[in-house]
Amino acid sequence: MREWNEFSQTLDGIEEVERQAIRETARIVSILIKRREELGMTQAALAAKAGLKQSAILKVRLRFHGWTRYRR
Q1: C-alpha to C-alpha distance for 57 and 19, rounded to whole angstroms
Q2: Which residues lie below 8 Å from residue 41, measured CB to CB, with a gap of 6+?
Q3: pLDDT digit string (tens) for 22-65?
Q4: How many angstroms separate the CA atoms of 23 and 59, rounded?
């Protein structure tokens, strides 16, 4: 969870209620990503079931799990 530790250091100066909301959102996104992977679903398959574009699923993942894993 290196990315969260790095990100959480940038939360200084943000109200506690906002920090809690960010933490909870990150927790939920992590659970959703893990479950999608457990089910063997691709981002494209999840997007189709959710009525979204695959790029929307990717943006969520990148936002909460850091860009570094996905750079080539």
Answers
A1: 23
A2: 49
A3: 888 888 888 888 999 999 999 999 999 999 999 998 888 777 66
A4: 18
Q: Alpha-carbon distance 47 to 55, whole Å?
A: 8
pLDDT digits (tens, 9 = 90+) for 3-29: 666 777 777 778 888 888 888 888 888
| Per-residue model confidence (pLDDT) at position 71 | 40
Domain ranges of the chain: 2-70
Cβ contacts of 65 within 8 Å, gap of 6 or more: 3, 30, 33
Measured CA to CA, the distance from residue 57 to residue 10 in angstroms comes to 24
Q: So what's the pLDDT on residue 72?
A: 37
In whole angstroms, give the CA distance from residue 55 to residue 67: 14
